[in-house]
TrEMBL record:
It comes from Mortierella polycephala. It is a multi-pass membrane protein. Its main location: membrane. Coiled coil: none annotated. The keyword Transcription regulation does not apply. Keywords: ATP-binding, Magnesium, Membrane, Metal-binding, Nucleotide-binding, Phosphoprotein, Transmembrane, Transmembrane helix. Pfam families: Hydrolase. This is Uncharacterized protein. SUPFAM superfamilies: Calcium ATPase, transmembrane domain M (SSF81665), HAD-like (SSF56784), Metal cation-transporting ATPase, ATP-binding domain N (SSF81660).
Length: 270
């Protein structure tokens, strides 16, 4: 919440103005059911709200609600396609946001994700065991109303189950989770703190670059696996051949000849 004092220079009258999260402003004015319904209606449409209040005339501490400002922060155009391609490649995508749970569900629906969105309070529920919290975390499609500590907690819970976790972020508050994740990905335009904590820094805007990175990395590992398999089979074949010759014919190979054969074998591989 942000507060400011406004003064009329002609009359010397002043009043305080406050803006911030709807729930904070509504609590500041002593509650307002109509405002709560308005905020929920906006949230169902995927719109954020910013509450504004001012002190009542003749008072310096008692506030009255001025109104709610609706804000839209739509996902990037490539987000839905990126998530779909990640799912096709066997990567489970979870959304982490500081928005309300209702907004998170609407955004998840637009992106083609599941709508099992947990409130961040489930991550620190003292009435549930660590095993139960971890199970909820695995089944969830996203988390709402999170703070930096919750992001770190999500990564930690998933890793405790042996899941490899990749985390994207761009701000200072994302740095701990980026550092904790198996693969920290700092997006385009990130802060220096996020860049330092990440393993990968995206130079192009959007999330579609992540899919390109996945495809490239998998191609590299496949080539490494193929090369290792070829080298093992080639070496075994080489050893078995000369072992049989040596045992059957009592033939002794000169060291220089062995080195030459190994070099020629490697050259053929290249």
């Amino acid at each position: 919440m942000t507060q400011a004092t406004v003064m009329n220079l002609n009359t010397q009258e002043s009043f305080k103005v406050a803006k911030g999260a709807p729930q904070v402003i509504i609590r500041l004015v002593g509650g307002d059911d109509d405002a709560v319904r308005a905020v929920n209606a906006l949230a169902k449409r995927g719109l954020r709200a910013l509450g504004v209040a001012r002190t009542k005339p003749g008072s310096t501490e008692e506030y009255e609600l001025v109104g709610m400002i609706s804000l839209i922060d739509p996902p990037r155009p490539d987000s839905a396609e990126t998530i779909r391609r990640c799912n096709d490649m066997g990567v489970d995508v979870k959304m982490i946001t500081g928005d309300q749970q209702i907004i998170a569900k609407e955004v998840a629906h637009r992106l083609g994700m599941g709508r099992v969105i947990l409130d961040a309070g489930h991550l620190v529920d003292a009435d549930k065991s660590e095993e139960e919290v971890t199970e909820h975390c695995i089944r969830a499609d996203g988390f709402a109303q999170v703070i930096p500590e919750h992001k770190y907690r999500v990564v930690e819970l998933l890793q405790n189950r042996g899941i490899l976790v990749g985390m994207t972020g761009d701000g200072v508050n994302d740095a701990p989770a980026l550092k904790k994740a198996n693969v920290g990905i700092a997006v385009h335009g990130c802060t220096d703190a996020a860049r330092s904590a990440a393993d990968i820094v995206l130079l192009a805007p959007g999330l579609s670059t992540i899919v390109d990175g996945l495809m490239t990395s998998r191609a590299i590992f496949q080539r490494m696996r193929s090369y290792a398999l070829y080298r093992i089979t080639s070496t075994v074949h080489f050893l078995m051949f000369f072992f049989c010759i040596t045992m059957a014919l009592e033939w002794h190979m000169k060291p220089i000849l062995l080195i030459l054969i190994c070099i020629l074998n490697d050259a053929a591989t290249l």
